[in-house]
Design goal:
468 residues, 4-stranded mixed β-sheet, 46% helix, single chain, Thioredoxin-like_sf, alpha+beta, Thioredoxin-like_fold, disordered N terminus, 15 helices
């Protein structure tokens, strides 16, 4: 990693190198001067946003060579975010750090390497993030394991990352403030897996394992500070809190009607969040996550209205309230019996096609990305299995990536047979019109191409019943 950083550093223009080296003079000063700069390969916009706790601190524009540099006369040490739409990543600044970063939006996370003062701890954070992402992409099959095998697999994965964390901490000797974010990224990914397991296992296999979990299974919850304001905008923390609430409410179903049960569980989540979280920002963020999750799983318009009424009572985040209520309205367009709104798809020859010319009969539509290899293999296997037993349906896979050549290479390597493969021409259009914000989403159309169910999951143990 260090050698790679030096390679990139040597490729930066002399002016930027001067900034990195020249600011060394200020390292012993009492001021909080800091620099942030770098280069964007294949930029999608002409600027990079620099944020703190989701609030924009500065907009840094690219020059004609797609490079950027910004001097902060006073930058408080802490965790920040840089964003090149639509992607973002974290960067941590100690006093007087001067950091350069190279960004490629096509492979955003994998492309990021820091150099300059403060680079080692930031490169560690990126390495740990990528290890977690790789683990997340392989989790689908792991949730099918029985309790003993899952815990063994989960703990083994965690132990290897603990060893990595300890070795880097000893070498870099970072401070306690940075350690909060490093340990949170390390531990909360592990905690999330343990919260997700009972829910995912039940959905995928039909087996409820709650009574089979060891008595100490959830002991890690004693380590969680649910109101740590330093973590309010840190995704590993927020993701864990959402998974925790999902698991707690999952174990308390009351209704025999599945749609009503889902409503009750999500309102229960809202009520727990209202009681558990004292920090207003954390509470609003979790309420928003619960709302997004619910609205993308349920298409019962009456239940949506009941849920939104309770959400609006509890949330004080007016901006997100407007966005979530808008999604609630958009979902009504995807109700049973409606036409699926037209979007532009691309075939293997690069031809652009109106989706309505293809999706005009019994169809199962699912989604995938090359960045989640475990999912792309698992979802295609599931689709092929269902197609054998339901030959009257066409199964349409829609890739959400941008690179036509890479997409074709993936398909050439795997050859998924009877699956009809297309790529989204514009993912933002797909996301807005079909409300696609998660990979597990599946859409079923009837014999007339009308929506039979717009919010299902191909991995649900009861999915086959939807095709009858």
């Amino acid at each position: 990693m260090i050698a790679y950083s030096k390679k990139i550093l040597s490729s930066l223009p002399i002016a930027l190198l001067f900034v990195v080296i020249g600011c060394q003079k200020e390292f012993g000063n009492d001021n909080y001067t800091a620099y942030f700069g770098g280069e964007v390969i294949n930029p999608k916009t002409n600027f990079v946003l620099f944020l703190k706790d989701d609030e924009v601190v500065d907009t840094i524009f690219l020059d004609k060579n797609n490079r950027f540099i910004h001097k902060f006369d006073s930058l408080a040490p802490g965790l920040y975010t840089f964003k090149h739409e639509p992607e973002y990543q974290y960067v941590y600044f100690d006093k007087n750090d001067s950091l350069m970063v190279r960004i490629n939006p096509v492979e955003f996370d994998e492309s990021i390497v820091f150099c300059g003062r403060g680079d080692e701890k930031n490169n560690f954070l990126m390495e740990l993030y990528l290890k977690n992402e790789d683990d997340r992409n392989k989790m689908f099959d792991v949730f099918d394991y029985d309790v003993e095998k899952f815990i063994s697999n989960c703990d083994s994965s965690y132990d290897s990352k603990v060893e990595f964390y300890n070795s880097k901490k000893e070498k870099i000797k970072w401070n306690d403030d940075f350690d909060l974010y490093a340990k949170t990224m390390l531990s909360f990914h592990h905690y999330s897996k343990k919260e997700i397991y009972p829910m995912a296992h039940k959905m995928r296999t039909g087996e409820n394992v709650n009574d089979k979990l060891p008595t100490n299974y959830y002991n890690f919850r004693n380590e969680v500070d649910f109101n740590n304001k330093s973590l309010v905008s840190y995704s590993p923390f927020v993701r864990y809190l959402t998974n925790f609430l999902g698991n707690v409410s999952f174990s308390q179903p009351n209704s025999t009607n599945l749609e009503d049960e889902d409503l009750e569980q999500h309102i229960h989540k809202l009520n727990i969040a209202d009681t558990l979280f004292k920090n207003e920002k954390i509470k609003n963020k979790i309420l928003n996550n619960i709302a997004f999750s619910y609205l993308l799983e349920d298409q019962n318009i009456v239940n949506n209205q009941k849920f939104l009424a309770r959400y609006n009572e509890l949330s004080t985040d007016k901006s997100k309230q407007n966005e979530i209520n808008k999604i609630g309205s958009s979902i009504q367009n995807l109700a049973l019996g409606n036409d699926l709104p037209a979007v532009t798809l691309v075939d293997l020859n690069g031809n652009k096609i109106n989706s309505q010319t293809i999706l005009n009969r019994k169809t199962v539509v699912f989604f995938w990305t090359e960045n989640a290899e475990s999912h792309l293999l698992a979802v295609h296997r599931k689709a092929l299995d269902f197609h054998k037993n339901n030959p009257d349906y066409q199964f349409v896979a829609i890739n959400i990536d941008e690179d036509q050549i890479k997409w074709k290479k993936v398909l050439e390597n795997h050859r998924f047979g009877t699956i009809n493969e297309f790529r989204a021409d514009n993912f933002e259009e797909l996301k807005d019109k079909w409300v696609i914000t998660k990979l597990h989403r599946t859409i079923i159309l009837n014999e007339s191409g009308k929506i039979h169910n717009g919010f299902v999951n191909l991995f649900d143990v009861k999915f086959g019943e939807q095709l009858k």
